Amino acid sequence: MNILEKRLDEVVEDxxxxxxxxxxxxxxxxxxxxxxxxxxxxxxDAYLVKGCTSSVWIIPSLKNGKMIFEGDSNTVIVKGxxxxxxxxxxxxxxxxxxxxxxxxxxxxxxxxxxxxxRQNGFTSIVNKIIExxxxxxxx
Length: 139
Fold this sequence. Notes:
The protein has helices spanning 3-16, 21-34, 76-89, 94-99, 116-135, and strands at 56-63, 66-73. It is mainly alpha-helical. The chain has a single domain, classed as Sufe protein. Chain: A, CATH 3.90.1010.10. Helix 1 (3-16) crosses helix 3, helix 2 packs across helix 3 and helix 3 (76-89) packs parallel to helix 5 (116-135). The two termini are 24 Å apart.
């Protein structure tokens, strides 16, 4: 099991603590409230995720060969989804990110928790993370 699968397992286990979808939704909102806000300078088109109804920014950096992501949104539920993806994908190498089977994210069960529009936004955020990982020089 790789590091991304392990982190996904942790998030799935967190969701399993709740009895119903409303409690899971509230948990995602809580994650969004706790996510550190990005600087106003980073709220620009360079980091804006296309394909989201809400405004979402994902900021990548590379430290010691590992990608670090920061993110933010103008809606708290989407900010919570960003927090989940940051937990899963941050501090992983581009190779680990690109080798991750994205179908595994279905284990989160978001279809039962958030609207189809939010699910599409989630996919757009994942695609932005993948795009950033592809853009890193893989020596």
